[in-house]
């Protein structure tokens, strides 16, 4: 008698419920039933309200700050492990704390490595995530990591815009590899911004490497936090004669005064995914859903099919 693959079960952490519902619908199922009890002091306890024994469980939740988002993912992983789930996949559309991926000065943590270890200890047997801040973070895990690229959803959107004289730009040196990959797919030129920071989130100086005069520029980055780098780069490029400046950023962290900066900047449009829910609406921000990408990969993982095509930038 042939082996029958049992049905996968998809659950969601609170912070990613809207995206998880889209992923489940694209997968062809409904979210599993989870309830969360909260104590008066803020402590909370998630509970699976259906059996997961022997099942492949997907738990969807981005781990952007505050820390409760990460804690909820850890508690759900532990609950699934103690309920005898067969495989437990942590689906992290946004892997938070990833900017701390190395020791850049003495006596600081490598938070990305610590979070990887904690996720595995809690019960994750596989990780699915998208556009890590640094590719090498995959090596911090001992379990398999499927690292997806948001270019899968961004490139079709960019091609639909039909921009002439297109130039892809990186807002900093660290993103040059990503910018070159996009430029190869779009058959365009590349420019790079060189920036110096006074301290975290504070830029002291920025210069442009390359020519943008008369070009429609698309800035590419993995995340947008305070939007300081992005808006400063956009303003600089318009000063240097760019025809228009758009930006595509996978993860819309958008903290502090980010929304106000974007509204006041010379950015024509900021295109993001729904890996993190927006805190407020903005006419300049367009959301492209990554739900179909995650649903497709989860389906392939569950049915033991190749997902190598999803790793192509």
UniProtKB/TrEMBL annotation:
- Positions of the Ribose-phosphate pyrophosphokinase N-terminal domain: 9-123
Q: Describe the reaction catalysed, as an equation.
A: D-ribose 5-phosphate + ATP = 5-phospho-alpha-D-ribose 1-diphosphate + AMP + H(+)
Statement: the UniProt record of this protein carries the keyword Ubl conjugation: no
The record's Pfam families line, in alphabetical order, gives:
Pribosyl_synth, Pribosyltran_N
What are the GO cellular component annotations? cytoplasm; ribose phosphate diphosphokinase complex
- What EC class is this? transferase
**SMART domains with a match to the protein in the record:** Pribosyltran_N (SM01400)
Gene Ontology BP, a term: purine nucleotide biosynthetic process
Gene3D superfamilies hit by this protein: 3.40.50.2020
Instruction: Supply the InterPro entries for this chain.
Output: PRib_PP_synth_CS, Pribosyltran_N, PRTase-like, PRTase_dom, Rib-P_diPkinase
Molecular function, one GO term: ribose phosphate diphosphokinase activity
What keywords are annotated for this sequence in UniProt? ATP-binding, Cytoplasm, Kinase, Magnesium, Metal-binding, Nucleotide biosynthesis, Nucleotide-binding, Transferase
Q: Which domain of life is it from?
A: Bacteria
EC number(s) recorded for this UniProt protein: 2.7.6.1
* PANTHER family referenced in this protein's UniProt entry, alphabetically: RIBOSE-PHOSPHATE DIPHOSPHOKINASE FAMILY MEMBER, RIBOSE-PHOSPHATE PYROPHOSPHOKINASE 1, CHLOROPLASTIC
What protein name applies here?
ribose-phosphate diphosphokinase
Annotated organism of origin: Salegentibacter salinarum
